[in-house]
């Protein structure tokens, strides 16, 4: 309440915030939710609801975070510079300019994209401009009321745990009003400490994406419906599709241009059918080969496939499986598959990639959830002189990357590859659905699903922590009537298989995994960006029906496991 009163009686730069604070004077629960903590800063940066308060995204929390980053850079780099990008969300442009203004006040050069830009173009700009850090103002696929602030290191990856802790220590040492340096944005431009990023950076980025092309000769004749979901993808995706010869592209009109309110898709997430509904409706008229959808910051890509007039949505795992097999098969035939190839995925992604990788002689590496860990593997290969060994990284949440030119998932790259793959199979007389079914027949039926359990506010955070601690202290002996054969606790870096324990050589993470005797498994982890616990379900069976039935059994067992 003391902090609330301080904000209420401070003359704020943004009058909208003062009006909000006045409206909630008689709402103690609302005041508590806005001020019971500072908005969390971690390896994913900041993410939260837009509004007034220390637990909200606003110009003051953004400035404070940027001051913390500036203090860190001044201690660890000489003549530091930072690249900044932003998406179509409400106040994204404001937060990007405020970040640049704080950096300029600290004598740090800020390079700012003058237009909305996909997240992967920020990762690219950091390396292209040889910056010491990067900031991307985005909340990815969250609902419209959210915004966020991703922080990147000089390698183009999202910052490490160690860096995040160091920046957080700097942030925590600051008073949100009194300790933040700030100059006007226009003043920063005049001083030369703020510069706009030039078009050449985007052109160079697209050149690098084009180098990842797998099908020579282009994709003439492929028909595509595309939706950027009112985000940043339209320009880069349509340009790259034009380069590979996909000329018949119909963009969903209601979702073509940037709009942070996302009026036709309240959850602009290509993982869910509702976000693709307008695109699917248009497909009924246009009858394309493929529907492509990119999320607002254009780092994730979802698809639906024309299966004899019916449009079938494919999961992130299925697209990852298809891409791995497609890239390996075509590059092997073309003689461009490197010696000792490497692919990377996450611990929560499908196990079906393992036998496929084995068939092609690909080393399959698994990392923690978060594309920065895939980026780390690319960096390790690069340092050892084996950058060319990397052929694909993917995560089940619709993130893909087939080259080391950036260190984050890239829906521009994914859109190109998916179209090339669809075209390649089309010439064989197959759809991607039929190609996936052929792989299921060959390697067995692996079905995956994801459940989300929401926990809003302070009480929700306490409940989430309690659930994870209970599971950690009392590992289940059986789930859905099947014995737990093994478990892994990534927070404690320990794994157990049939009573024998072993150390896990991955960074610590609040993740629990339970492997069942029939080959199925569950993974439980709190989201790093939203107030919810995610439960990943994996069912394996001899037939499609067996695997689907197992996943459904796990769905029914998951609430009991969590005690909700």
Can you offer a commentary on this structure?
- The structure is a single chain.
- This protein has about 575 residues and is an alpha/beta fold.
- It has 4 domains: about 35-195, Alpha-D-Glucose-1,6-Bisphosphate, Chain A, domain 3 (3-Layer(aba) Sandwich), CATH 3.40.120.10; about 205-315, Alpha-D-Glucose-1,6-Bisphosphate, subunit A, domain 3 (Alpha-D-Glucose-1,6-Bisphosphate, Chain A, domain 3, 3-Layer(aba) Sandwich); about 315-445, Alpha-D-Glucose-1,6-Bisphosphate, Chain A, domain 3, CATH 3.40.120.10; about 445-560, TATA-Binding Protein (2-Layer Sandwich), CATH 3.30.310.50.
- Strands 16, 17, 18, 19, 20, 21, 22 and 23 form an 8-stranded antiparallel sheet that branches. A 6-stranded mixed sheet has the order 1-5-4-2-3-6, with helices on both faces. A 5-stranded mixed sheet has the order 8-7-9-10-11, sandwiched between helices.
- β17 and β18 form a beta hairpin.
């Amino acid at each position: 309440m003391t902090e609330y009163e301080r904000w209420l009686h401070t003359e704020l730069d943004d009058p909208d915030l003062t009006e909000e604070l006045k409206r909630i004077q008689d709402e103690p629960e609302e005041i508590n939710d806005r001020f019971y903590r500072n908005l969390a800063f971690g390896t994913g940066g900041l993410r939260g609801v837009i509004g007034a308060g220390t637990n909200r995204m606003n110009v003051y929390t953004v400035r404070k975070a940027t001051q913390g980053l500036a203090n860190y850079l001044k201690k660890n780099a000489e003549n530091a510079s930072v690249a900044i990008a932003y998406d179509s969300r409400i106040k994204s442009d404001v937060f990007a300019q405020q970040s640049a203004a704080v950096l300029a006040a600290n004598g740090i050069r800020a390079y700012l994209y003058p237009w909305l830009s996909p997240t992967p173009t920020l990762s690219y700009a950091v390396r292209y401009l040889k910056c010491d850090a990067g900031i991307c103002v985005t909340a990815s696929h969250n609902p419209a009321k959210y915004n966020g602030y991703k922080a990147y290191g000089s390698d183009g990856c999202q910052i490490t745990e160690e860096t995040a802790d160091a920046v957080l220590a700097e942030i925590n040492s600051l008073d949100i009003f009194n300790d933040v340096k700030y100059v006007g944005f226009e003043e920063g431009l005049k001083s030369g400490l703020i510069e706009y990023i030039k078009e050449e950076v985007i052109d160079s980025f697209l050149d690098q994406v084009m180098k990842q092309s797998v099908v020579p000769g282009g994709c003439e004749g492929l028909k595509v419906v595309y939706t950027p979901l009112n985000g940043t993808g339209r320009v880069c995706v349509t340009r790259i599709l034009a380069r590979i010869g996909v000329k018949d592209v119909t963009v969903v009109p209601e979702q073509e241009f940037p709009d942070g309110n996302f009026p036709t898709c309240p959850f602009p997430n290509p993982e869910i059918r509702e976000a693709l509904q307008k695109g699917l409706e248009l497909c009924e008229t246009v009858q394309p080969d493929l529907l492509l959808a990119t999320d607002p910051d254009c780092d994730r890509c979802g698809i639906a496939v024309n299966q004899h007039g019916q449009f079938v949505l494919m999961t992130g795992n299925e697209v990852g499986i298809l891409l791995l097999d497609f890239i390996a098969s075509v590059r092997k035939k073309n003689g461009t598959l490197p010696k000792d190839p490497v692919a990377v995925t996450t611990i929560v992604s499908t196990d079906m990639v393992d036998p496929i990788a084995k068939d092609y002689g690909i080393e399959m590496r698994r990392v923690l959830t978060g594309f920065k860990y895939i980026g780390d593997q690319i960096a390790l290969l690069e340092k050892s002189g084996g950058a060319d060994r990397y052929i694909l990284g993917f995560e089940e949440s619709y993130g893909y990357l087939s080259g080391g030119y950036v260190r984050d998932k890239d829906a521009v790259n994914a859109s190109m590859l998916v179209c090339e793959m669809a075209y390649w199979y089309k010439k064989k007389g197959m759809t991607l659905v039929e190609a996936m079914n052929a792989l299921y027949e060959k390697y067995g039926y692996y079905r995956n699903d994801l459940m989300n359990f929401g926990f809003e506010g302070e009480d929700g955070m306490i409940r989430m922590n309690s659930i994870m601690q209970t599971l950690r202290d009392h590992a289940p002996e059986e789930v859905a009537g099947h014995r737990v054969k093994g478990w892994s606790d990534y927070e404690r870096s320990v794994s157990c298989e049939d009573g024998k324990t072993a150390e896990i050589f991955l960074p610590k993470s609040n993740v629990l995994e339970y492997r069942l005797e029939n080959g199925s498994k569950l993974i439980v982890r709190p989201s790093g960006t939203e107030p919810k616990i995610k439960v990943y379900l994996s069912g394996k069976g001899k037939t499609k029906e067996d695997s689907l039935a197992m996943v459904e059994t796990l769905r029914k067992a998951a609430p009991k496991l969590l005690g909700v």
